[in-house]
């Protein structure tokens, strides 16, 4: 009976990650400034968070701001930073109420002390929550992560030359240490690129590209992505 039940249960990914794309196009289609697309995109983040809790996903991560995004016009960078800063404060109560652990991953050196202050406060206040871990990648790139990990590993090896470092140990130097690799990566707006995201961690992740623009991506789209994931046959390079 238990076996039969297990076989018919939907396979839920432990970690779902999302590259939010299409905010600018969504705004343009409506004759609005790009910033309005990002503001609308925050609603999609909220909808996916609620859907992830309902479906029993344990880790939900978002590529909110890449290293490359620093190269966007100053006005857009500033409004994105302001939006993230305000959203963290606004969603803080929801994280506490819903038992969500909040984590930010990225290059802190470029973020400034006010932003880092609010990040630290929310991370500290939610660190013991375990219903869902909500991760924002801010000022992050996959190459930056591998580079900083390699530097830390080299320093460690210089101090302890006898130490053997396995492939699994290398993962502990990455900024994502302790977080399971994504099972499913969703990218919206029809794009099919990794765009310097978690290059190491995505090795065996199932990829899903949807034409829906990020501000239009809601709860039902998230659940449909989980249904699609449940149908995938994950072989990890082996034969079944
Ligand atoms: C990509 O669309 C989207 C971004 C670069 C930013 C997404 C960030 C948010 C929605 C903020 C979320 C923050 C919190 C704290 C919840 P694009 O601008 O590349 O769109 P385009 O490809 O149509 O130009």
Question: Care to give the gist of this entry?
Answer:
This protein is α/β, with parallel strands linked by helices and 240 residues long. The protein has helices at residues 2-8, 23-29, 34-55, 74-98, 113-126, 142-159, 167-171, 219-231; strands spanning 15-19, 59-66, 100-105, 132-140, 184-187, 206-209. The chain has one domain (11-141, 181-231): Undecaprenyl pyrophosphate synthetase (3-Layer(aba) Sandwich), CATH 3.40.1180.10.
Describe this structure in words.
The protein is of the alpha/beta class and 240 residues long. The chain has a single domain, classed as Undecaprenyl pyrophosphate synthetase, CATH 3.40.1180.10. It is built from eight helices and six strands; from the N terminus they run αβααβαβαβααββα. β3, α5 and β4 form a beta-alpha-beta unit. α3 packs parallel to α4 and α3 packs across α8. The protein starts with a helix and ends in a 9-residue tail after the last helix. The protein binds farnesyl diphosphate. Farnesyl diphosphate binds next to α2, α3 and α4.
Beta-strand percent range: 15-25%
Number of helices: 8
Question: Can you say what the CATH homologous superfamily is?
Answer: Decaprenyl diphosphate synthase-like
Q: What coarse outline follows from CA principal-axis ratios?
A: globular
Number of DSSP E strands: 6
On the 0-100 scale, what is the average pLDDT?
Answer: 95
């Amino acid at each position: 009976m238990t076996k039969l039940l297990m076989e018919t249960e939907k396979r839920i990914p432990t970690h779902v990650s999302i590259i939010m794309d299409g905010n600018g196009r969504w705004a343009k289609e409506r004759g609005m400034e790009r910033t309005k697309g990002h503001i609308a995109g925050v609603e999609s983040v909220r909808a996916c968070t609620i859907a992830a809790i309902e479906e029993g996903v344990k880790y939900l991560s978002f590529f909110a701001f890449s290293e490359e995004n620093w190269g966007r016009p100053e006005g857009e960078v500033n409004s994105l930073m302001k939006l993230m800063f305000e959203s963290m404060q606004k969603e803080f109560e929801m994280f506490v109420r819903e038992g969500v652990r909040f984590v930010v991953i990225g290059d802190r050196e470029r973020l400034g002390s006010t932003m880092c202050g609010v990040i630290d406060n929310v991370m500290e206040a939610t660190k013991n929550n375990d219903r869902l871990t909500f991760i924002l990648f801010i000022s992050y790139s996959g190459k930056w992560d591998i580079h900083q990990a390699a530097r830390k590993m080299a320093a460690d090896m210089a101090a302890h030359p006898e130490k053997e470092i396995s492939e699994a140990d290398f993962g502990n130097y990455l900024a994502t240490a302790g977080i399971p690799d994504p099972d499913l990566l969703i990218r919206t707006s029809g794009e099919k690129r990794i765009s310097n995201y978690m290059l190491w961690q995505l090795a065996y992740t199932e990829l899903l590209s949807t034409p829906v623009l990020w501000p239009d991506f809601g709860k039902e789209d998230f659940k449909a992505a989980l249904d699609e994931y449940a149908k995938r046959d994950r072989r990890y390079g082996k034969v079944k």
